[in-house]
Structures are given as C-alpha cells and as structure tokens.
Amino acid sequence: MKKAIITVVGKDTVGIIAKVCTYLAEHQINILDISQTIVQDYFNMMMIVDIGATSQEFGDICADLEKVGESIGVVIKCQKEEIFDSMHRI
Fold it and tell me: In this structure, are residues 75 and 46 in contact, taking their beta carbons and an 8 Å threshold?
C-alpha cells in the first residue's frame, strides 16, 4: 500500500467532496480515511488515500487535483505519506 495525504481548503460550496471523490474513483485511488469540517463558511478536508493501484504518476495526480481545486474554488494539495510524516514530526 502506498499512502498519500490530500488536503482541501477553501470557501464552502456544493460539490467539493463529490468532485474530489469522483477524480479519485476514476483513477483507482482508494480513500482510507477522511475528515472534514466547516468553520464559518470555510471548508477544510484531509484525506488519507491509497495510491498503490493507480496507473497515474504521483506528480500527475497532484497536478490534476490542483486543477480540480481551481475549477471549484478551493486549494488542493497532495503529499506522499512519508514526506508528510517527516515534515510534521515533533
């Protein structure tokens, strides 16, 4: 299993989760865990996904998700789990 962390932040609107999840499903990326909150009209979501079954290159996934985010007015970032863990280790 190869894990990645996806974060989505921006003004809340209809369809954010649907757009992101549709992209992931179309590319054989499985959602392992998901957390989302809305605070005063601002949407925040963090997902842990398994990218092991996708045929897409990791850089292409990140670029595609950024474009999805731009199309719906949010910022989407994607990092490999090991990089995320290294950056957030205390």
Answer: no
Decide: 4 and 56 in contact? Cβ < 8 Å: no
Confidence at residue 1, expressed as pLDDT on a 0 to 100 scale: 83
Query: What are 15's two structure tokens?
Result: 């369809």
The model carries a pTM of: 0.88
- Which of 33, 28, 18 is closest to 68 using CA atoms? 18
Residue 50: the pLDDT is 97
C-alpha 44/C-alpha 19 separation (Å) is: 15
Token representation of residue 27: 């590319």
For the record, the structure tokens of 23 come out as 């992209």
Distance CA 76, CA 72 (A): 10
Cα-Cα-Cα-Cα dihedral sign, residues 17, 22, 24, 28: positive
Spatial contact of 16 and 76, defined as CB atoms under 8 Å apart:
no
